[in-house]
Each structure stands twice: as structure tokens, then as C-alpha cells.
Specification:
Elements: H1 39-45, H2 55-65, H3 78-86, H4 89-103, H5 107-141, E1 145-150, E2 159-164, E3 173-176, E4 185-197, H6 199-202, E5 208-209, E6 229-230, E7 235-247, H7 253-258, H8 269-300, H9 307-317, H10 322-341, E8 344-345, H11 349-356, E9 359-362, E10 374-379, H12 387-402, H13 411-423, E11 431-439, E12 444-450, E13 458-464, H14 466-471, E14 473-478, E15 481-484, H15 487-502, E16 506-515, E17 530-539, H16 546-555, E18 559-563, H17 568-577, E19 586-587, H18 596-604, E20 608-610, H19 614-626, E21 631-634, H20 641-646, E22 649-653, H21 658-663, E23 666-668, H22 673-714, H23 722-736, H24 757-788, H25 795-817, H26 831-845, H27 862-893
Parallel strand pairs: 9-18, 9-21, 14-17, 18-20, 19-20, 21-22, 22-23
Antiparallel strand pairs: 1-2, 1-3, 3-7, 4-5, 4-6, 4-7, 8-23, 10-17, 11-12, 12-13, 13-16, 14-15, 16-17
Bound molecules: adenosine-5'-triphosphate (ATP).
Adenosine-5'-triphosphate (ATP) binds at residues 363-365, 410, 412-413, 438, 440, 443-445, 463-465, 508, 564-567, 637, 639.
Amino acid sequence: MPEITAAPGADPLSPDADAARAGAAEPVGGPVEPATLTALQLMRRLGSGPRGLTEAQAEERLARFGENTVPSWRPVSWPRRFLGALRDPFTTVLLCLGLVSAAVASWGTACVIMTLVVVSCALRSGGEHQAGRAMAALQELVATTATVQRRPDGDAAPQVREVPVDQLVVGDLVRLGPGDLVPADLRLLRAAGLTVHQAALTGESVPVPKQALDAPPDGPPDASEPPHVCFQGSSVATGSGTGLVVATGADTRFAAAYRGRARRRGETAFDRSVHGIAWTLIRFMLLTPPLVLMANAALRGRGLETLPFAVAVAVGLTPEMLPVIVTTALARGAALLARTSGVIVKRLPALHDLGAIDVLCLDKTGTLTQDRPVVVRSTGPDGTSDPEVLHWAAVNSFWTIELAELPVPDALDEAVLAAADEQGTDPLEYDGIAALPFDPVVRMSTAVVRLPGRHGVHTVVVKGAVEDVLARCGRVRADGAETALDDAARERLLRWAAEEAAGGLRLLAVARGDRRPRLGGYADGDVRGLTFVGFVALSDALAPSAEDALRVLSERGVAVKVLTGDHPGTAARACRDLGLAPGEVLTAGRLAGLTGPALAEAVEGATVVARCTAQDKARIVTALRGAGHTTGFLGDGVNDLPALHAADVGICPRGAVPVAREGADVVLAEKDLTAIDRAITAGRNASGSIGAYLRITLSSNLGNVIAMLAAGLLLPFLPMLPAQVLVQNLCFDAAQLSLAFDQPAVGAARRPAVLRPRVFLRFITAFGLINATADLATFAVLAFTAKVTAGTDSPTMFHAGWFTENLLTQGMVMLLLRTGRRAAERRTVGPVHLAVTALAVVGLLLPVSPLAPVLAMSAPPPLYYLLLSVVLTVYGAALAFARMRYARRENGAGEPGGSVA
Ligand SMILES: Nc1ncnc2c1ncn2[C@@H]1O[C@H](COP(=O)(O)OP(=O)(O)OP(=O)(O)O)[C@@H](O)[C@H]1O
């Protein structure tokens, strides 16, 4: 427990210190070392004062020194975005294949490959630019602000107001409260019970105590941990403070640590699926050219002249539009979600991860309940009504709020104060001496007060979780007298509390103790040996939409786990009332020794884990992810931050503390579980589009590649010229962009949408073989046509015939293998229909158009088209049949986590 800091006394912000600002208007000199000067020296150096800057000074500094943003997070320029798109693995492979083609002077192939690269990079960077702009606009809605103290003009009194974080300048005075992000590097001028999370800077997961020191501490300076400096990138865990901005933007310690590096996070579900599939394909692509060369050399005695064809076959396998489709589908889904449900997806891949969630962890208060507690009763240790307990609780609430540098609303404190007000209790009959606001780790808040005029005695008043407060008590008050609190009495009180909690009530235990006044701050040791006073019981109504939302989540295959700081009884009762069977209720204490798979196994079977600290929540989420679950976490408090970071998708409501909003991937307009359901559905739909693209493109491409290899070995000429392969590829790619705009089928979002590389490979092999069979049947038709029709026995006719068949079968695959709405579900013509029509028109008309000779094609005779229609009818029927069987097997298999393949 950090030291409890005394209430304001002599400090650099007191009016006496105003002298320091005389003549100070400009930051003076070069870089300042915030830890080594006294507070007054520092203010003077930075041209600030204890009343803060004037608005004009701040404006002038902002114009001169720039905004408070970390440089590497600024928007990326167009050319950099385009070059970034080149780093995609598929593009890299295409570039390599292009270079190989150029090396063997196959200029046609090289040019078409380069066109493919440029088109896909342009589309991708364009899509990303649009998505980036849309995301930036959405993020504005949840932008973080800082509480700053400035003066309208030189003579006016300081005013405290919120400003966007990027508007802060050196010399500003900033106030910090629980859940705030430290918006710049700050030298603390005042602090009360302040602890900060510095994980982003030091990796340290436990909050570090900070305090205001006027002079630098004695001993050798600790550059990484000066106790009186807070660095940008850290966040307030408990307490409050006021600090002087000493560095902003690129000059902060955080910017220096991250210079040139993007913000990194661990591998997410999105990375695992999409990258997994990409790398499997790339291995195939790299293997293809040598295989084609070897087969042609061995069976046909052909040499290096087959290389351009081999390269074209490898290119034919590439889903080069994947990055474009991914960006478009996710950006479109995110924009729609923001418009229709007020849900803001801050990181595009998080939308995919939302769709893949199969475990959703959430806190109880404010998610399952409304977080509008109302005091029901206050009782003494013997369970009889006792107004004095509420009185002491109110004294604690009032002074912990009053003595905070930046008080934040706390629903429990507000409820206690409202009830005390009704009862006629006046906390002002005491003077506040010091306070330690609520700390979710120790689960209590402490106020030190004294009766005016009673100088020799300070009273420590504590309220908090029953087990934790009782652990600090040595005595109990009963019938106006105090007796020792023995083990039996302690047990009895805990049992009584458990019964109250099982009835759904939230309980606060209240204790107090008189002390001889202390000089300096109060420390943890002073909050012991207390006398137990009694309980305040509060009720918190259930959230009206929670029951339906939980049912829908379970129907959608999402297991819900409640990770709460509250009492196990209260949490279990809330779950039961909402129709969620709590099963065996665990407490974090019981899981303390478990890690990794053992922890995941223990939590797997449970619905509720109670008495969780922030670290417990994160540990559980990490263990569930480690066990292969795509895990979401919904929370809104400071104690949810580590879990928000640990989850595949961190979700918080817009009203969450700033640090939670900053750390979350998805921000909800309201803390409403039904919004999560809509977000999950949007995620599954977006993944559905991506899955449909991969399914369609890969099975079609694989079929073509098999057919090309077979024909290459059977025919005396190349079955398709490299340029024809690539033109056909380009047409197919363009048509498939429509999949990103396809409407999802009704019921398409019934299960978590995971893109599983193995399931994909099974799927594309089966459907690729059907496609290859149709191609081989077409070859037979072409051979037959050539035989019965004199004068058409030429490679050009063969090329044209196969080109037409390819585009038509590709169109059919698009219609039959997409997840989008089928004709029966929609009346209007969708983008996929239009794209397929265009594909069919090109396939039928190009070989008979004036462009045909350029591509070395000549029109096949009418007989071919007649026979082709038979092949296509049989192919369509086979495809539909296989698709039906596949869907039936997938649904029947009940594979956990489901898949979109
Ligand atoms: N303002 C407060 N003052 C004193 N004690 C508090 C206060 N707020 C909460 N507590 C106690 O600490 C316990 C844990 O609180 P915490 O905020 O960690 O979780 P919670 O809000 O109860 O649940 P959840 O994790 O579901 O949001 C509560 O059960 C309560 O007993």
C-alpha cells in the first residue's frame, strides 16, 4: 500500500509560491531534467507558475513546439502506404516471379505480373487509406482528454477544463485521477495515494507508488523510477495528483523508447488465421514452378522454355486480392457497426477477432448489473439495524472524495452519501486529515479524520470488501462496547456476509480505529488493529437487456465467464437471476498457485471467478488464450486494464475510464451486452466474406493449376499462354472484389468464425478436384470439337475455349460457394451477381472480339458452346451437391469454434 499523503499544506501550488511565476513566460534554456531540480526551479525554467499557463501562452507554445503526439503514430503518407503494401508476402512472391520472368526475357509475363502487383498495391493502399480515415474519424469519438488548469488571461483565476491530449504544452498543469492516462511527462507537484501502471515503459505489471517531492530525493538518482515524475504512456491505478508538463510529443521518454517502432501487440487470432493460410499458400507457390519444370522435362523433354508457363501457373495460385478483400470487408463492417450500433472498432483486425470469439470474459458490475447501487440497510456486527455504521461509511466516502486531487465519481460512494444524507448524517462534523482512495488490489478505502478541537486523536475510518476489512480488525463493537475479535466471531461475520451476498446484495464492511496524530503521511501499518463497526448492504439492479443478450451469446457458441472483484455469492446470484448457471463458483485466491494449462482447465468449467484483482483477470484471460480459445474481455475500470490488453479483443464502453478506452480494441456506445452481440455478428460476417473469397479463389485456382499441369503434359502445346493465364487472373480478381460487399446470409453468423488453415486446405482440395474435372472434361470436348469440325484444330481455338470455360466456371464458383444471401433470401440483384455477369460476358465475348488475336485466341465453333453448356450444367450440379454435403458435415461435426471454411 503506498503511503497516505497529507492533505494540502505547504506545497509548490500554494499561493505563496505564486512569486515563482513573476516574470516567467517562456520555457527557458535547453532540455530540462525534471527529476533533479526543485519544483519551483523547474516551474521557473519552464516559464510556468503554480496557477498554470494562460490560454494565450498555451496557444503560442502549441504553435511553436507542435502537438503532443508520438511521431510514429501520425497518419502514414500515400507513398509510404503504397510501399508498405509491397511488403505483403503475396506481393513479394509475385515480384520475385516477375523478376524471374524478366531474367528469362519473358517480357509479356513480366509486364502482366507487374501490372497485377501495381493494381493490387494501389487497391490495397487506397483501401487502407480510406479505412484509416474512417477509423481516425471514429477514434475521434473516443479520443482521450486531459484535465488541465489554465487561466483565461494573466489576471484571471485558474480554471480547470478538459482539453484534447494533443493540445497540451510544456508548462501546463495537469490533474490526474484513477483511470487517467498520463498525457505527457509530468513532474508531480501534489499527489494523494497515487500509484501508476508503468507496464508500457518498464514492463512492470504492478502499479508503482508516486509522490510529490519538492526537492530531488537523497541518494543516487534512479532514472527509470524517479518517484516524483510520471511518464507519458503510464496510467493512474489509484489516487490522484497534479503535475507540471515537462515534455510533450517526441520529447517524452515514451516517444524515445518507441522511436521508429510501431506499437506492437502479441499475435492475435487474426494474425494466426490469415497469416497461417498465407504462408501455407506461399509454400505451395514456391514449390509449383520447379515441379512444373521437372514434370515437363521428364515427360515431354521440354527445357527452360517452359519457365514462363511454370511462373504463370504459380501466379495462378496467388490470392493476390486477399489484402484488398480483407481491408475492404473489415472497414466496411466497422463503418456499418459504427453507424448502426455506435460500436467503434479501433483496430481493423479486431473485427475479425470479434467474429472468432468463443469465450467472452466480463466483469459483473455495470455489465450484468446497472451499477446504480442503492443502500438497503446498515447493520451492526450482530445483524441488527445500526445507523452509525452508515455514518462512518459516509465519513469515509466524503473525505476520500474531498481530499482527492481529482475526484472521480464512484457509484458505491455516491450511494453511501445519498443514503447518509437521507438519514441526516453530516460527515462535515469531522475535519479530513488524509485519505487513500479505493484501491481494487487491497479492496478498501481509508480516510483519516479528527473532530474539530480534539487535537490528540486521529480516527482512521475504513470501508471495503468484508474479508479484507476483517483481516485488519482486532476488535469488534457490540452493544456500545468493544471486545476482541476472535476466530469464531470472525467466522460468524464472514458466514453472515456470505448469506447476505447469496441474496444478491453487495456488502461493504466498515471499521475504525483511533490513533495518536502522526507527523507526515500515514502508512499501511496504520490501517491495522481496527475495530469492526458493521456492514452496509447495497442492491444493484440487473441490467435489463443482460438476460436476452446472454442467451443469444450462448446460442452463438460464445461461453461467458464472469471475472469480478465482488463477493462470490453476489456474483453467483446475479448469474442465476439472469439464467446463466454459475456452476462451481471459484475465487481468485483458490487459483493463486495455478498457471498456464492448469489454470485454463480450472476456469474452463467455471462461469464465475470472484474476488479477482486486475492481475488475476489478465492471468485468466491469458490462460484461456493459451488453451486455444479466442478470448474477448469486456470491462470498464482501472482493474480491467491488464485483461483488456491480454485479450484477443479488449472491449469497453464509451463511459469507461480513459485508460480502458485507450487500451481497448472496441468501444461500445453503451455498456450493453446486446451491442456486443451485434459486434460479434458483424465480425463473423466480415470473416465470412474473407473466408468466401479464400474458398472461391483457392478452389478455383487449384483446379486450374491441376488442369494446366495435366494438359501441359498431355498436349503437344502449352494449354494456356502465360499472358492468357494472367489476364484471366486479373478478371477473376476484379470480380471477386464484389465479395467484400456481399450481404451476409441469414444465419451465417451462428458460430464463431475462425479461418482455420487445415479446414481450408481440405475444402479447397475437394472443390479444386471438382473444378479440375470440369476443366479436363472441357479438354475432351475441345478435342472432340476439333475432330468433328475441320479446320479448327489449333492451339488458338483450344486457348479460347478454355479461357471461356474458365471464366464461366469461376463465375459459377462465386455464386455457389459464397456465404452471401441466396436468391431466395433477397429480391434485388447484388454486387456478386453483377460481377459474375461481367465475368461471363468477358469470358464469352473476348475470344470472339478483335482483341482475341492479340491474346493468341480464335473463336471456337458453335458445337463447342453446345457441349460446354452440358459440361457446365453437370459441373454446377456437382458443385451444389458437394457444397450441401460439406455444409451438412460441418454443421453435424459440431467442431468447437466452428469455421468459415
Ligand atoms: N468505493 C469503494 N469503497 C470501498 N470499497 C469498495 C469500493 N468499491 C468497491 N469496493 C469493495 O471492493 C470490492 C471489489 O471491488 P472492484 O471494484 O474490484 O469490483 P466490483 O466493482 O465489485 O466488481 P467488477 O469487477 O465486477 O466490476 C467490492 O466488492 C467492494 O466490497
